[in-house]
Target: DNA replication protein DnaC
Amino acid sequence: MARTASEVVSLVGTLGQVLKSEKRSCATHGDYTDHLTGLGKARSAAWHGCNRCNAANRAEDTRREQQRLIRDNLRRSIEGRVGRSCIPRRFSDRSLAGFCVDGEGQASALRICTDYAENFLAHARMGRSLMLLGTVGTGKTHLATAIGNHVIRRLGMTALYLTASSAFRHVKASFGSDSPHTEVQAYALFESPDLLILDEVGVQNVTEFERTVMFEMINSRYEAMKPTIVISNRGKDELPTYMGDRVVDRLRENGGKLVLFTWESQRGKEDV
Ligand SMILES: [Zn+2]
Model:
């Protein structure tokens, strides 16, 4: 039986009042009785439609809303971890896929770093560290922060990026009587993340104090079986001078890998 549009618009009932009932058929759920129901004096009455379709739609809405909440929480949690990682803005979206390969050396470095990122859980369980050594502008920080980004975004773990000089400053800042943190807290910061990336090691001659900081930092992570990525412009043989022999030993233990960046600087060609 056909209804005219004017009939639908004109019918008004009190809330929940059934004004009319009709046999209908739902393409999915078959025959059902539909009710034209009042929605109060201010609105026209409306047909319910298929109850089972309505219930399915409500369930779908709930499912979507839940997924949206989970996605939002995940995004906020990732953003929080990215924010706390101190990875410089310039490197915050660096990826392994975005590393420019131009020769066997770069291909090999990328392979090792990709393996380190993709098997991070296994490497972390062994406390296996990584040393990226070589001249300025060869992409060491790019690859290290790409691993950090992978650890944060894909694995939901934590990473912290620090230059050696900022690590030294952070410990020194704990010495004053009105310092914002204690020395213990300073070292706890270095030990807490799942991955620590220590950049610019050996840019200047180190003092005995700095060598001690370096040892405490790397050793506490070593004892907690937590990996560290060390980045330096110094060569393999010079590194012990700037970090101390014991630190380099710690980094090499449990199969810690050393990657040499021997190709010429890519600065100017791309932003490395
Ligand atoms: Zn239906």
User: Anything to note?
Assistant: Residues 26, 28-29, 50, 52-53 surround zinc ion (CB under 6 Å).
